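SEQUENCE-TO-STRUCTURE ENTRY
===========================
Question of interest: how does this chain fold, as expressed in backbone structure tokens?
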Amino acid sequence: MADCCHNTSCAIEALKQRQSKTLKIVLGINAIMFVVVFVAGLLAHSTALLSDSLDNLGDALTYALSLYVVSRSAREKAVVALFKGGLILLAGLFVLGQVIYRLFVPALPLFDTMGGIGVLSLLANSLCLFLLWKHRSDDINMSSVWACSRNDIATNLAVIVAAGAVWLFNAAWPDLVVGLALSVLLISSSAKVLAAAWHALRRAA
């Protein structure tokens, strides 16, 4: 009997198991970071940090859904990818709403909290990106996960820059500018994920 390692179905099953293991790890990281960053964002009065926390929450939900469809059909993966794109869009719109709110209810963010949490988030998301790198081209499910993780790095760097600018200018506007930029990034990213998912859904049909 042929060695299972040379059997196509066994190779696919082994790939699915590796995907599941990776998704469980990054899911745990993002769930923990959501709580940490959200609380820090409230305490620091930072729109940028709140947007970062929502990004973590969206990622945690995304990874959970991705874990659910690892062993499912291409059509189911495409449907879940559509849902994930919708989650990213909602996060972007929420951050945009926070920016508008802070324009009418201004508050000076705590730059030291922003910077410290920003660095912590960057380290956590860099680890997630490293773990997901080898799966970025596996299928529509994993490629959408990769897109979310890649956005996280840009988000963390933006928060760190915003913290430095808040300290330098002693003003809240850098936090709002970064928050606005992150909302645009999230919305544009959601459009790409939704377009790819829709294309995959039509192909599967």
